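User: Can you predict the 3D structure for this chain?
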Amino acid sequence: MVSLYINQPHNHILVIGCFHGDEPQGQYLTEEYIKENPHTKLMFIPCLNEYGVRNKTRTNENGVDLNRNFPAQNWILSERNEYYGGETPASEEETKFVIDTVEKYKPKLILTLHAPYKVVNYDGDGEEIAKKISEIIGYPVESSIGYPTPGSFGTWAGIEKKIPTITLELDEEVDVKLLKEPVFKVFKLLEEY
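Assistant: Here is the predicted structure, written as structure tokens:
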């Protein structure tokens, strides 16, 4: 069951820890941050894809890549592989949960955690905060991830909804515990944003 962690008052920044089950670093980091900072002003969805985490797979239970299932104008019906975007946009319960969360809480900024590319990617008007995150974590800032991403969350939220959206691609070869310090500094930056 997907859940949202939110305190009142909050600062209207949403952090999504885990889109892809084979990229679980974000779930660990968000859950640890919540444990250590229970009164955080950030909103968290620690794990969007619990099935994927349990089964160590990119996709959800229906074989859908949740980060290709958003109703962006560039969504396409793709072949059934690990990037399959579903039969229709927003066909998945997890996607609907995120859309409902964004519509209800109207975040002013969104951060999603992924792996393994070691970059700070941004969609929409997020370059300024992406540069600040880059200074903390030491990864380069990239406006493009370098390959097509039809139906992606970044396109839907960052470009079409005009909510600055940052994708922090973590180093999967580093012990996740070593990522706590820099990622927690990123979260602290967002607390004050």
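Strands lie at 13-16, 43-45, 109-114, 119-123, 141-142, 165-169. The chain has a mean pLDDT of 96.
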